Amino acid sequence: MVKCGNNGCGKEFEVGSQDECCFHPGSAVFHEGSKGWSCCKPRVLDFDDFLKIPGCATGSHKIAEPKPQSKPIVQSSTTNSDYASSSSTTTTTTTKPHPSDKFTPKPINNSGNDRSTPTLAQQFQKPPIEYVEENDADDAVISIGARCCRNGCSSGIYKDDESRKEQCNYHPGEPVFHEGSKGWSCCKPKAAIFEEFLKIKGCKHGKHRFVPPPKDNSVVECRHDWYQTFDSVLMTIYAKAVDKDNSKIQFLDNKTVSVDLKLAGDKMFKKVYNLAGTINTETSKFDVLKTKIEFKLIKDPQESWSRLEIEEQELYSYQV
């Protein structure tokens, strides 16, 4: 039994069988949150519902193309992980494997004595990012009645200098609203309604902060969308008038994409995407267009992703 490679099918079939295949001859279309196929009209919002859209054409099953074998690449020190080199041509030298060559996995030592070679989990593990609390300056001028500006704090009101020493229970992370649940990126409690979300007790203990940090008006937010196929994740960042010469996009490793865009009017967009799966940085690519940046992230291994990024609470380690 082999798996069908037609869009929207994915069923297993026997080679040579006359089983009818129901599939989508078009390509996936994701636009402003709606998801569907170019060959038919149904549109949905949820990705799981998108996968359930029945095929609009019938025909024969097609064997899914196997994952291409990795080939050694010799290239200059400037790689396609840097935006500045994405438009340049890189000379490559490849060695074509002989059909009789087979990959032989190395034996796994389960004795626990060999600690020289890191495990796969150790290779992909990122060190936790330490949270540093920022407080009001000693000479800060604070108005009587000023409220604490930390997330989740509802009791901090400035009366006198003693208010600076009071304990503040707050959330150092950001609010996370996903599929009806509401919570904070720094801790696990979630709520279904907004009123209960406001009551989630702060997970960090420190001091009140009555003077808000200065706001950087040059930093803007850019919306993104994504969908996946059998072998790749296609992500789009919507940004107009990108300054190609001064912007920088990098594949930092097989789980991290760094985006630093310079936009019109001295505006900028910065974000590090901590991907939920691993990619092949050699074959992944991106393209800067007039109104958006399109990424084609090649999965390695070719597994289904349940989300684009890992949750922030998996990245940060707070001392509570």
From TrEMBL:
Q: Name one GO molecular function term.
A: metal ion binding
List the coiled-coil residues: none
Task: Please list the residue ranges annotated as the CS domain.
Answer: 219-309
Record InterPro entries: CHORD_dom, CHRD1, CS_dom, HSP20-like_chaperone
Q: Domain CHORD spans what residues?
A: 4-61, 149-208
Sorted alphabetically, which keywords does the UniProt record give?
Metal-binding, Repeat, Zinc
Q: Which CDD domains match?
A: p23_CS_SGT1_like
- Any keyword Ion transport? no
| UniProt region (Disordered), positions on chain | 61-120
Name of the protein in question: Cysteine and histidine-rich domain-containing protein
